[in-house]
Amino acid sequence: MIDLYCERTAAGLLAEPWNAASNLAFAAAAVAAAGASRRQARGDGLLLAALLGLIALGSTAFHVFATAWAQWLDVLPIVAFQLAFLGCYLHRVHGHGKMRAAGVSAVFFATLLAAAQAPRVLNGSLAYLPAAVVLGWVGCDGWRRGRNGALLAAAALFPLSLTARSVDLALCAAWPRGTHWLWHLLNGLVLWLVVAGYLRSAPHPRVAPSTPTTA
pLDDT tens, position by position, for the chain (215 residues)? Predict the structure, then answer.
């Protein structure tokens, strides 16, 4: 059994009811993202929506089973979503070639691995610092380019979401249920805003960006 959160005090499939149920926020974000993508006939949006669905399933599995294999199901879709979003944003919004976008994404992945080497810092939230930096840049970039309030809102909300994840264990004595479930709820909203903002910023894949940059 892997016990990383206040709510889990014993083994069992129902030991983390709030942490498990709050993953519905990711499922709702996936459904909303898929609907918006279908209306716009956006395959890139559907890819992000599918990864959101996998995040919902993987996180639910981890908070139900609390095993090493379930932890991988939790982590991998999160990393995949971050890499897919960054690659899509660089390619579709900034017009970078696919190779350049993939190269930047690879550098970002390396920073994720480095940050993940300190799992006890901030209750493991240090691993999300690269995402917070990139999202801050995306939020400002989206606003500068086209008054994209969704991306800016996502960037502003993510630190609050990350705080809820970071203080979970520190508040166990005062709040035994913890705050990890709040991380799920807030982050579900953040991820929906990210996809909605991306769909608004990026031209349709059939339409070339206005200032393409090849690699």
Answer: 899 999 998 999 999 999 999 999 999 999 999 999 999 999 999 999 999 999 999 999 999 999 999 999 999 999 999 999 999 999 999 999 999 999 999 999 999 999 999 888 888 899 999 999 999 999 999 999 999 999 999 999 999 999 999 999 999 999 999 999 999 999 999 999 999 999 999 987 665 554 544 44
In this structure, the number of other CB atoms found within 10 A of the CB of residue 81 comes to 22
- How far apart CA 93 and CA 143 sit, in angstroms, is 13
User: For the whole model, what pTM was predicted?
Assistant: 0.93
Quick one: 172 exposed, middle or buried, by C-beta within 10 A (0-12, 13-18, 19+)? middle
- Asked if residues 164 and 183 have their Cβ atoms less than 8 Å apart, the reply is yes
Reported residue count of the chain is 215
* Helices of type H across the chain: 17-21, 24-39, 43-65, 68-88, 98-115, 129-146, 149-166, 180-201
CA 35 to chain centroid: 18
DSSP 203: P
Amino acid sitting at position 144 = R
Amino acid at position 152, single letter: L
203 φ, ψ to 5°? Answer: -70, 160
Task: Report d(CA 82, CA 134) in Å as an integer.
Answer: 10
Return the SS3 of 25.
helix
